[in-house]
Amino acid sequence: MQEVISSGQYIQGPMLKKFEEELSAYTGAKYAIGVGNGTDALWLSFMALGLGEGDEIITNANTFFATAEAIWIAGCAAVLVDCDPKTKCIDPQAIRKAITKRTKAIVPVHLYGQCAPMREIRQIADEYGLLVIEDNAQAMGARGDDFRIGELSDAVTTSFIIQKNLGTFGDGGAVWTKHQYVNDKIRKLRNHGSSRRDMHSFGFNSRLDDLHAGILSAKLKHLDKWSDRRIEIAKKYAEGLKHCDFLDLPYARQGYRHVFHLYEIETKNPADRNKLLEYLVKNDVDAKTHYSIAIHQQEGFPWGKEARLSGPLVNAEKNAASCISLPMFPELTDEEVQYAIKAVCDWPKHK
Ligand SMILES: Cc1ncc(COP(=O)(O)O)c(C=O)c1O
């Protein structure tokens, strides 16, 4: 931050360039572009890839609202499909069933910190000639078993909002891609459609400020260590909660690096969720829900843009009705983790 202040260059300055280079090295992507936030990262990618009016984009029914919102902002129709009951990531079989003549892209969300089954998704995309944009807002630092996030897609988007695994002191986002044309287009779109002084085509204002780039550059060096601590905390939760037969615990796919943005448990009986949540909050455990309302259950769905559901969404609806996120961040102490575990285990006695 001091370096940026001394340079006097706050927007599209040398610190942004430095951070973009670091992000590209970290992700292994040829191009990385800083933008205003994770929502913009999504719709700027859609526009750069040529998606728009009349195009259908398949995504999770269980995700943060912004994934569907970005599809709507780009003028496309969101087609919501079910998740896998164990991993909560998008179900490839449900994607296959949702494809129509209008389908142009798939947006898998790496939910809670775990990479979606990208090999299966890539195969479907190849069969039907679809674009793939990974929503990686929740999984900075995650990877698949023998592939990196970004290797099997056209673009990856992320959010640097403060609460993410790599968060700035406010809002921020980025896209990374292997395609030069996507890089060039987003760079123009994020800066009023301008690639040289005083000349503009249609665009927006969505830049990652240099102060944020400086913060992110400093924090990126610690990300892997912080992810390791999250994984360690997840192991402690799994061990401490293994006898709670009223719960389903997170499932990490074999060989994948799940970076536990959230430690999301489910009550086997949805009727227990609010009772357990209230008990935890009353006992000073900072438990929350992510997300208790699925996208198709949100107000005003389908927002006049031909959004639709494909197939039954039983797993997404069960997830919404029964999810609880336990405290998860690298600075949590072992004592705090044990405190949360004890509170969950004690709950049946206070039911
Ligand atoms: C899955 C997912 N997609 C998109 C976003 C949007 O990011 P932002 O809040 O930076 O716009 C978020 C989080 O906020 C998210 O969790």
Compounds present? pyridoxal-5'-phosphate
Q: Which descriptor suits the 3D outline?
A: globular
Please summarize the sheet with the most strands. Answer: 8 strands, mixed
Order of helices and strands: HHEHEHEHEHEEEHHHEEHEHEH
Low-confidence stretches: none
Q: Roughly what percent helix?
A: 25-40%
Whole-number total of structural domains? 2
Spatial order of strands in the largest sheet = 1-7-6-5-4-2-3-10
End-to-end Cα distance: 50 Å
Structural category:
alpha/beta
Q: Which architecture of the largest domain would the CATH scheme give at its second level? A: 3-Layer(aba) Sandwich
Question: What does this molecule look like?
Answer:
The protein is α/β, with parallel strands linked by helices and 351 residues long. The protein folds into two domains: 2-220, 3-Layer(aba) Sandwich (Aspartate Aminotransferase, domain 2), CATH 3.40.640; 223-350, Alpha-Beta Complex (Aspartate Aminotransferase, domain 1), CATH 3.90.1150. It is 38% helix and 14% strand. Helix 3 packs across helix 7 and helix 9 (223-241) runs parallel beside helix 12. The radius of gyration is 20 Å and the shape is globular. Pyridoxal-5'-phosphate binds at residues 37-39, 63-64, 66-67, 109, 135, 137-138, 159, 161, 171, 173.
